[in-house]
Structure formats: structure tokens, C-alpha cells
Amino acid sequence: MDTFDEFKALIEQDCPGFISAHWDGTAETEQRIKELTKATIRCIPNDAQEEVGVCVFSGQPSHRRVLFAKAY
Amino acid sequence: MSKEITSRSEDYSQWYIDIVKKANLADNSAVRGCMVIKPYGYALWENMRDQLDRMFKETGHVNAYFPLFVPKSLFEAEEKNAEGFAKECAIVTHYRLKNNPDEKGKLMVDPEARLEEELIVRPTSEAIIWNTYRDWINSYRDLPLLINQWANVVRWEMRTRLFLRTAEFLWQEGHTAHATREEAVAEAQLMQQVYARFAEEFMAMPVIQGVKSESERFAGADDTYTIEALMQDGKALQAGTSHFLGQNFAKAFDVKFLNDNNQQEYVWATSWGVSTRLIGGLIMTHSDDQGLVLPPKLAPTQVVIVPIPKPAAELTAVAEKLMAELRAKGVRVEYDRDEKNRPGFKFAEHEMRGVPVRVGIGMRDLENGVVEIARRDTKEKQSVALDGVAEFIVALLDEIQQNLFHRA
Predict the structure, then answer these.
(1) pLDDT tens string for chain A (72 positions)?
(2) Which of A16, A42, B259, B360 could pair with B228 in a Cys bridge, judged by C-beta atoms 3.0 to 4.6 Å apart?
(3) Burial class (CB within 10 angstroms; exposed 0-12, middle 13-18, buried 19+) of B225
(4) Distance (Å, rounded) from C-alpha B114 to C-alpha B164?
(5) ipTM value
(6) Contacts of B211 in chain A (CB under 8 A)
(7) Is there a contact between B164 and A40 if contact means CB atoms under 8 Å apart?
């Protein structure tokens, strides 16, 4: 899962679950993703590995994945 | 049958509400957004509370109790915390009612009984507790301070759902004070692990442990550690949080200690809490279209014995002997003495309230020296020899606990 279109498709499924995706670390991106998909960052998992990548929304550099989900 | 519930595929939200109501866990009340926790729901909460309390004590914490009301001047002392909760506060402004002179038999707020300073009904207790800690902490010998309280709090939520989000809820809140940053961080992480262990071993609810992004952090925290669980509908539930508060509250309330070099330093803090929201998580993790499914370790009743078709004296004698055996092994067991309803109806009732194991005893089975055992999680039934059935049930409860965790 690396593009925002894929992200949106996943989160709009019937039973979306957690989505592990790169995030650029900014509150702006987090807010925009929330507005567009209702998904929030649930957490940066304790066991998250350092991994070079680009933010699923902004394309900016990212060094680890975080967990997104719709939440109660 | 009148007790039928909406299926999950039809409407997951309605299914959830149906379970809460038809399993007699809780109900709405005359106060919008506030729930009545019914005896069965409260028994479940008591089991959760008792286990958590044991785990807190095993990790060195003690309980205390602080006031429900927080004077506004204390509430606003830690700015970020105050700002974060300001929009959902209930506020006490008066302390007396009087007869309404214009309307006989009605009361009105006595305008002469206005409080000099408003009181906030606690949405969380950092302010009142850190104001108290200033008097309790003087030197490094007073640290660490490891205190928990069991309490109710009020957050004026607009959209509420039974257990998951209510204006008033029950919870525990731990508030600890430490001499060093490292120690406070370690404490916050330790309590995250305690919550994760409780969720997985007792609730049979798998969780992911992680840290919150800045915007999802607790207001006033430097870091929020969380446990997140996934519900059957693919939505996440924040099940417990533990906060590293840095020196934010120590600075706001001027809580300093004399370190071992005889220098004044601000104290480091944590706070951590779980609430009756966990019951919502428990329901949505395990239950099915027949009703509640409970993990044996938390179920108020672990085993129910149902005489078939009615509690005849011979059946009751066998049931009482089995109950005594099970109770001696620490099993929470009850006997269904109801004479009015048919076995099929009773079975459905016990399924609805999620009793993990049902034992059916009938005359014909007894002649063959067996009883019928039904497990709630898989709905499998089997005949088991009456001789040794108590040991069988104890092992089965353990197996159900494991099965619920693995299939969740």
C-alpha cells in the first residue's frame, strides 16, 4: 500500500482494519487524511522499524510506517 | 422470540446496542449521555476492576481518593490540559435551591447562593492531585509516589454510546511522581504493558502497543502510550492510555523536591487510565448474533447448570454437588432454578448473557452417568461423564479463554 488512492480504497472497505503507511510526521498531513478519509493515526507501534519511504499523502520523506484506522 | 437481536451484517451499531440492552449490561438514563450500569454489567466491571487493581498493587501502586470538584483556578493552572478539556466540562456555580415564589411546588437556583469560585466536575484529576502533591513531596525520599484512584469522571460528550462514550464514566486514574525523567518514562511504559497484559490475558483481546502522534496526545502530556484493539467491524478502539507528563504539572503546581545533591528540582510525572469503555471493547471483540460472548476469566457467571426440563429434586441434588465441587475449584457457577420457562428458552437466555459453559442435566442422561456440556464460544455440545466433570469444566474454561484470544 503506497499510494493515497490505494489508501482510500482500503479505508473505505467494509472492514478496513489497521493500515500501515508512511507519514511525513506533520500535523497538517494527519489532519488532511482525517478530513478526506476519517482515518486517524492510532499509533506509532512500539516495534516499528526504521524504513526509508515517502509519505502516502504528501510524498515527503518518511523514515517509518504508522498505523491508521477509523476509530471509535 | 422476543429477545432476538439485530445481526451484525445487517447493522453493526444496532447489534451492539441490542447486546448491551438485552444482555442486561446497561441502559440509557434520564440524564442524556449518562448510563445506568445494571447489576450484570456492574458484575463484569467489578471483575475487571478487581483484576486491574491486583495488577496495580503488584507493580507497587496504592489507592487513594481525591475530590470530585476541581476549583477553576486549579483547573486552569496547566494550560494545555485545561484547554484540551475546557469544551467538555460540567461546572458547578451554585450550592443551593429555593422555592420558586412564582411557581408553587417548583424549585429554582438560589441566586444568592452563587459560589465565589466555580467548581469543575473532574474530567480527569491531574490538577487536583498535583495541587495536593505539592504538600506531599519535599525530598527525593518522598519519591516515587505511586498512587491510583478508582473514580467517576464527567466529559460533556455530544455524541454518546453506551460504554464506548458516555458523559459520565467509571475509570481508574494512576498519578505518579518521580525524581528523574527516565524513571517516569519507564513507569508510563510499564503501565502500558500492564494494560496490554490485562487486555490480552483477561479480556482475550489482542492489542497493538504504540505511541500517539502529537495531535492525538493527552492534553498536557509529552508522550502518550496507547493500546489499540481492532473490533470485528474493522474499526480501532483506543483501549487504554498511559502518559509521560514531563515536568508540565510540577511546573504548573510548583511541585519541587530536594535531590540528593541538595538542589531543588521539579518532579517528573505520569498518569494512566482505563475505563468502562473496555466493556464496549470486550463486547465488540467476542460477541456474535446470538448475544454476548465473555472470556471465562471475566465472566460474572462462568458455568450455569440447567435442569432438564425442570429442577426436580434429584436433578437439584446432583447440581448442588457439582456446584460445591466447582466452587471449591474457584469456579463461578449458578443453578437455573426457574420453573416457568422451557429449557430451550433458558439456553437462549444464557447464550444472550454470554455464560461460557452450560451444563444440562436430565434424568435420562443421569441414568447413563453423563451430563451435556455446551460451550458458548463455538456452540459445540458434548456428553461428558458426570464422574470427573468438574475437572473437565475447569480445563474447558481455560480452553475457551485461549480460543477467544486466538480467534479475535
Answers:
(1) 678 999 999 999 999 999 999 999 999 999 999 999 999 999 999 999 999 999 999 999 999 999 999 999
(2) A42
(3) buried
(4) 35
(5) 0.96
(6) 43-44, 46
(7) no
